[in-house]
Amino acid sequence: MRIHVQIEGGDRLNDLVRYRVPDARRQMVERGMEATLESTIQLNPVDTGRSRAAWKAALDQLRGASNTGVSAEGPIGEGTARGSLRHEHDETTTDLAATNAVNYVPFLEYGTSRMTPYQMVRRSLAMVRGVIGRWFVLE
After folding, report:
1. From CA 136, how far away is CA 117, in angstroms rounded?
2. pTM given for the model
3. Which of 18, 65, 91, 139 is the most exposed place for a label (fewest CB within 10 A)?
4. What DSSP designation does 114 have?
5. What mean pLDDT do residues 52-62 have?
6. How confident is residue 68, by pLDDT bands cut at 50, 70 and 90?
7. Radius of gyration (Cα) for the chain, nearest Å?
8. Residue 1 pLDDT
9. What pLDDT shows up at residue 133?
């Protein structure tokens, strides 16, 4: 027995693989990063506002906004300059990385012998992991 399947409009499948899948993947990764950064900003403690401003700068870069008008307290210019986003996207991979180079962020995240950790990044990632499954809808 021989079965032969021919799909009319095979070019459409190639277009789907070449354009729609990579674009959908990029949007999903960006959405996950946006949710993670929003949560991290909310969980970030505020004393001078530099750490929060750096996370906000990365979020603004993701959204394509300028870094002016960052709504955080304190000397935001320094914090804004220390936040960045690296974004790489091609047909097979989408890679995003947000960086907060404010020197005391590791102490906020992991704590010290005298300070309880805030765990703002780890808690945000755990929250996003919990909702990613809901982003996939079968139609």
Report:
1. 33
2. 0.76
3. 139
4. T
5. 95
6. very low
7. 20
8. 44
9. 75
Tokens for 21, please give them: 């899948």
- DSSP letter at 70 equals -
Kindly tell me the sign of the dihedral angle through the C-alpha atoms of 47, 53, 59, 63: positive
Q: Which residue would you say has higher pLDDT here, 12 or 89? A: 89
Q: Give the pLDDT of residue 130.
A: 84
Distance CA 7, CA 15 (A): 14
Burial class (CB in 10 A: 0-12, 13-18, 19+), 9: exposed
pLDDT in tens, 4-30: 555 566 666 666 666 678 888 899 999
Question: Which residue matches tokens 């499954």?
Answer: 133
What b/e string do you get for 59-71 counting C-beta neighbours within 10 Å, with b at 16 or more?
A: bbbbeeeebeebe
Pair 80, 69: CB distance under 8 Å: no
C-alpha closest to that of 50 among 37, 61, 41: 41
For the chain, how many residues are written? 139
Q: Half-sphere exposure (CA, 13 Å, Cβ side) for 12?
A: 3
